[in-house]
Structures are given as C-alpha cells and as structure tokens.
Write a structure and sequence with these properties.
By secondary structure, this protein is an all-beta fold. It is built from no helices and 8 strands.
C-alpha cells in the first residue's frame, strides 16, 4: 500500500506488532492504541523509542502530512517499507506511526 501526503488513514489495531515481532506502538487495556509525538529513528528498535506527548486512538481518521523516514538500522529495500514512519495530523496535533499500522480510508 502506497501512502501519500493528503491521504486519510486509520490505525489497524491488529497490526501493533510487526511480522518480526517488534512492537510498533503501545496497546492499552481499554483496547486503544497510543500514538506518540515522535518515534526515534536513530535508536529503534530499542527501549524508549516512543517520545513526547501521546494520545489514545480507536477508530479515528488521521491525515497524512508527510513521510518521515525509516529507522536507521533497517535496510532501504522495498520489502522493509512496513517500517516507514509517517507524520499524521489529528485535531491540531501531530503524531508519528509506522506504515504497517495504517490503512487508507476509501475515498469512494
């Protein structure tokens, strides 16, 4: 799935862990997912990679602002694009999220 600036997306709860078993976001006891202001692309995957303010999401629609990049420790090959991080806008605040956790909202 190709994500572009201006796309509307939703968070996919079932994809909070990557196929390689890496945590991509925080899951809460109320079945929501937390997105954070920043994902540290220089240190991911390590401890404390999610930084800044956070907000819990369930079924909200967010706007893609831009692609931020991919963690430095991951290959730039296409097969690793699930680890691309996007800057998302919701209610006047920005959050970062891995592309694997996102699905585009149908425009039909």
């Amino acid at each position: 799935m190709k994500i572009m600036p201006g796309d509307l997306v939703k968070i996919v709860f079932a994809k909070h862990v990557s196929p390689e078993n890496l945590s991509l976001t925080t899951v809460n006891s109320d079945n929501s997912i937390s997105l954070y202001e920043k994902i540290d692309l220089n240190t991911y995957p390590s401890w404390k990679d999610f930084k800044g303010y956070s907000k819990n999401f369930r079924d909200e629609t967010l706007l893609v602002v831009r692609k931020k990049g991919r963690p430095a420790s991951f290959s730039k090959e296409e097969m690793w694009n699930i680890y691309d991080v996007y800057l998302l806008l919701y209610s006047g605040e920005t959050f970062e999220c891995f592309s694997y956790c996102l699905k585009k909202v149908d425009s039909d």
